[in-house]
Specification:
Blueprint lengths: L16 E5 L3 H15 L5 H4 E5 L5 H8 L9 E6 L17 H9 L5 E7 L9 H9 L1 E4 L5 H14 L6 H11 L3 H15 L7 H7 L4 H13 L3 H13 L4 H23 L4 H8 L3 H12 L3 H20 L4 H14 L2
Helix pairs in contact: 4-5, 6-8, 7-9, 10-11, 10-12, 11-16, 12-14, 12-15, 13-14, 15-16
Keywords: DNA replication, DNA-directed DNA polymerase, Nucleotidyltransferase, Transferase
Organism: Scopulibacillus cellulosilyticus
Family: Belongs to the DNA polymerase HolA subunit family.
Amino acid sequence: MALTQKDLTINKPLSPIYVLFGKQSYLIQLIKDKIINQALTQEEKDFNLSSYNMEETPIEAAIEDAETLPFIGEKRVVVIENPYFLTAERSKSKVEHHLKQFEKYIESPSPGTVLIVIAFYEKLDQRKKLVKLLTKASKTYELSQLTDDLLFKLLENIALDYDAHYTKEGHEQLLALVGPHLTYLANEVKKFALYCGKDHPIDKSIVNELGARSLENNVFSLVDMVMRKQTANAYHLLNDLLKQKEEPVRLLALISRQIRIVYQVSLFQNEGYTQKQMAAKLKLHPYAVKIASGQAKAFNRQDLERALSQCAEADYQMKNGSMEKTLALELLIHKLAQIK
């Protein structure tokens, strides 16, 4: 289920146990810090905050600490990290954990302690008794999907910390360049905010001027240029990528992938799927589907099938050595631009 701004609000009274799991490491860190800051003052953190890595330390050590009364303050915070025993994943750790002691603590947690379980795993193993006990007794956050509105709000708040104004148009352009990687997005917004301050909004022009582009997003721009018949710009970008020592075979694979996404979105559109449904089926960020939807409207299914066929032909030429790789890629750009 997608997160909302309300889900990220930490209020008192605090839960005795929190579980934060999922692949959104930035969000996990954000909520962990919010919980800690609600529980402890800056001075209390020196005495009442501790962290235990379950791949290095037995769970009993963390539980013993959690059962200890706080020193100079009302609360103690104990953080448990890498609890691989909550998942179906295997670990190379040789540490033995007496999980019965953990189960007993969950059933009767210390009122003076806030226990935070940090699990950078996509899923917890709900078949396990320990996981069932833990999720029932705790405030649990599954930090995986988040709404577009919440993503914008999180980045807007980062900009506000530097007295900068983060705009919607800048946000959409940044997503187009970087993709939905929250940690990367946050770092980019910090960079823009430091540059702009109060003097200039973080708009499309700033993102284009200062934004870092991943290889995948450069290829996305390349395909977009080809589809818009901006052949000269496409050749220029391709040249830049080749000068950066990007392998033609890898570039071709990414071009093929982007065209395949547009083709799949085209098929789903014809079947009446919403952008949200398409994003879920294709396991893509909704903004990527939104862009692909716009591209799909400009080409019919036959055009896209022809484009994929030309990509496959270029791949064959590269791999059997019948054509020099860079030349095959340049000819592919020419052929794609001639479609329709």
